[in-house]
Design goal:
about 300 residues
Length: about 300
């Protein structure tokens, strides 16, 4: 019991994932500033933002709607992200969980934050939040099937293994899956699915500051919004880590491999940052078409190539 609590609360769960995600958020903002010829924030700015919301800003409840559900939604989002982080980071830390179907559990756990945002937005009874939640629902419908095809491709490549530890070990004993044509196609599909899950440009239409003024988060402030920010920090770490685990043979924490693990993580985050800084926000119907047509096509081609050994 004590070990499980340590995994959830300290390493590799809440504390470790949140701190690492905060530093990656700083890296993302620093690269964005460089692209825009700005100085960018100091290293500890993500922590300043979080603790200012948590300890200084007042939590204002909406007059209409359901205050209880409104406040519980960020709690569930942080819980879902933390649980997904534990299932992802334990195998990456070379700790076998013994859970044979954890990859499918991870798939469902990663949907909890998005659904929590939708529930919280609807509980606020704000019309702009309702627009944002509607867009979030449509976005989920568009990318989740693509993400499932992506996972199906990984399962096929590793000989029908459903647990993340075995997938990582299969790559470390042979070669990373990204070193094949199908692996490259799956990487493209995976990186855009992560972009959408994180609601980064061009898929930030549920928030869309210039259109619906933060959309699903418009009514959140104080400690409740701090939990949402915490969830985003965790997701910003565990989703690139999952992509590395599934396609780039995970992490090895010995000698030079420690530096290589950090470089791989920064490279994936850099790709996400460059995508969001070189593309405009698209309409929700364009996002649906993008995933339903192009990303699904890429995923299906990858599945066919895997069947033929490519």
């Amino acid at each position: 019991m004590a070990v499980n609590l340590f995994y959830f609360l300290v390493f590799p769960g809440l504390l470790f994932a949140a701190i690492t995600g905060a530093f990656l958020s700083w890296f993302d903002r620093k690269i964005t500033a460089m692209v825009q010829f700005r100085k960018g924030p100091p290293l500890l700015q993500p922590f300043y933002d979080f603790f200012k919301l948590l300890l200084v800003k007042e939590t204002i409840l909406p007059k209409q709607g359901s205050p209880l559900i409104f406040l519980l939604a960020p709690v569930f989002s942080a819980f879902g992200a933390t649980m997904a982080g534990v299932f992802i980071l334990l195998p990456l830390s070379n700790i076998a969980t013994g859970f044979r179907g954890d990859l499918l559990v991870i798939f469902y756990l990663l949907t909890i934050p998005s659904f929590s945002y939708i529930i919280g937005a609807l509980a606020s009874a704000n019309p702009l939040a309702a627009v944002g939640s509607s867009r979030e629902m449509k976005l989920i419908i568009s990318y989740e099937f693509t993400f499932l095809l992506f996972i199906a491709g990984i399962i096929m490549k590793c000989g029908q293994q459903f647990d993340l530890y075995s997938i990582i070990q299969a790559q470390q004993t042979s070669s990373p899956f990204i070193g094949s044509i199908s692996g490259v196609l799956l990487f493209i599909v995976g990186i855009f699915c992560i972009q959408a899950k994180l609601a980064l440009v061009p898929f930030d239409m549920p928030e869309a500051e210039t259109e619906i003024t933060e959309g699903i988060f418009i009514e959140y402030s104080g400690a409740a919004f701090a939990l949402i920010k915490l969830t985003k920090y965790i997701m910003f770490f565990i989703l690139p880590a999952l992509l590395i685990a599934l396609l780039m043979n995970g992490f090895r924490f010995n000698g030079f491999n420690i530096l290589w693990a950090v470089l791989k993580l920064l490279a994936v985050v850099l790709a996400l940052t460059l995508i969001r800084n070189t593309n405009p926000r698209i309409k929700i119907r364009q996002a649906i078409k993008f995933f339903a047509l192009w990303m699904n096509l890429f995923a299906v081609i990858a599945l066919v190539l895997i069947e033929f050994g490519y």
